[in-house]
Design brief:
mainly beta; 5-stranded antiparallel β-sheet; lipoprotein; signal; cell outer membrane; FimB/Mfa2/Mfa3; palmitate
Length: 311
Amino acid sequence: MRQLVFILLCGIGMIGCSDPLSPYTAGSNVVRFSMAFQSINDFPTSIGLLTIYAFKENEKGKYVFYRKLAELNRDAIRQLETAPSPGENYTESRLFSAELTVGNYRLYVIGNGQVEGGKSLQVGVSEPFDLYFTYPEDGLYWAYFLGEAEVNAESDNPVVQIELHRVVSRVFLKLYSVPYQIDMVRMSIKNMVSRIHLNGRYSGITHSRQEIFKMKNESVYVQDTILFDLYTFPSAQDSSRLELIFQAKNGQERTKWIPLQLEPDRYLYLTGEINSACGALVSFEFSCVYFFVWDWPNIVLPEFPLKPLPR
């Protein structure tokens, strides 16, 4: 009888306990995913901050907040395991592993941006829409990235591929033949979305900060060239406007409006020339070229940040 009781207790103990040699929690599995994006730079050069969120599917079929899986600075990103590039013009892949309980998940990988709404996230309640990028009041100085994938945390889950995309647009303006009479040029972009939500929706309307170019030309016989480089959010209501305000040395101002279509992952390259003939101080001839994602980081227009990336 004592032997029978001992055997039963041992059996119950074996059922109720997980393998002490296993590094993982019972009822959970490790999911591995590979991250990359299109760029001529390597991964840590373009992205200095990487944040990963997991949303789990509930019984109603909605994905609700599960937990933040990681927040990695550039040094930590460099230490991630690497894998071959998924294709031409892509960075090398960076691998990450996370332990998840069995279920369906939607993973969101955020590069360079600090999304808002994180402090009020509620486990099992908050949805991807509740996390969003906000256009900074003092301007945007590097590209924000976002990637997502749906995974099932099963025992033999293959490596999940996550491609990151830039959620921002970039405007580069080169203005030739700026005459001596111009003292200052101010540039801003009107009518952009102010929020980019993780689920891809936009909300709000905002404007970029005003960029100022102070002319240094002191000779009536010399004409200057102006360069503006600006990261933006996509256009609100399908259209934005670039505003150029020219201020002459005598204090007079003239404004030039240029319609723009700002889309994520696009590089908008504008060139303009001022006709400084008498009576045509701000008469323009403009050409416009769209650089799609695979051309964003090319030799002519390199993907350099306007300020140092976050560490």
